[in-house]
Amino acid sequence: MSKNVIIIGGTGHLGISLGNYLIKKNFNVFITTRRKKNKLNKLFNHNANLYTLNIYNKIQIKRILHIAKPFLVFYFAGQSLPDKSFKKKYETYKSNVIGCKNFLDIIKKYNIKCKFIYPASSEMYGKIKGKINIKTKKNPVNPYGESKVIAFNIVKNFREKYNLETYNAIIFNTESIYRKKNHLLPKICLAAIKAKKFNKKTSFGNLNISREWNWADEQMKLLLKFIKRKPQDFILSNGKSFSALEMINFAFKYFNLDYRNFVNIEKKYFRKNDINIKISDYKNCLKRNKLKRKSIIYGKKIIYELINFYQRNKI
User: Fold this and answer.
1) Is pLDDT above 60 for 114?
2) Percentage, residues of the chain above pLDDT 70
3) Distances (CA, A) of 285 to 76, 205, 229, 236, 291
4) Domains within the chain, CATH numbers bracketed
5) What is the pTM of this model?
6) What is the pLDDT of residues 135-151, one digit of tens each?
7) C-alpha angle with apex 17: 170 to 138, nearest 5 degrees?
8) Residues 55/161/170/61 CA torsion (nearest 10 deg)
């Protein structure tokens, strides 16, 4: 069996986590990106094959599939910020939907034997009471979630109508050391560091939201276990929910500080249509696939991992 893998848009934090894990397992990893390759080698320890790719150009898509001859194709491209999607509606739709469909069209047309994995999102469901499972009605509250629903249905349709080996991985909040610093948990950790070093205050929005914060390395390892099973849709999450306020408390207690002395709440940082609570029925997917999950890094440990990394690297 081929050990060649393509990660489309593999320079986001999930792609980097997945790529480095696969490299350690001796897979031949091909990473596609819009960015300049010379800035990316260090992210993959110089062991990935980096290619510049336009996901809207089917000729280029055909070429990279011909070069790599992959048995796994991960589509991790796409605008992924819910807030930004209100201002960049077409870009969000185009990158999450059209790019994905272009790959599926080429795979189908040329009968390329591979598994295709799409990272769907918990943002597809909107404001839901109770636990989210595969059959939960999708009612997104932002253009990003809407684009993910459309792509989810396309991926599922190619599986059911054309018998392609396609998977939808419904990913709940996932963090890593590669996560951009404007996301909530990195911002929380950096706020605690600035408070300790400079006695500086930081402003936040709604801290009453609760999420199942996952660690990327654990998520990607479980993802690979799921795709050894038959093509399907499945949830990737750990079921361990914490509020943003709890996560802030963890971060400031790391330095023996009281967050109340360093945190301001400002209405301008509240997100439009924010969802307060998001809970997954993750066990159902594990059970039907006869898989087990043992989460080690969650809650306080995620905060500590990020703070330790930022301090080591003087971020």
Assistant:
1) yes
2) 96
3) 22, 33, 11, 9, 8
4) 4-174+214-236 (3.40.50.720), 180-212+240-312 (3.90.25.10)
5) 0.94
6) 999 999 999 999 999 99
7) 10
8) -10
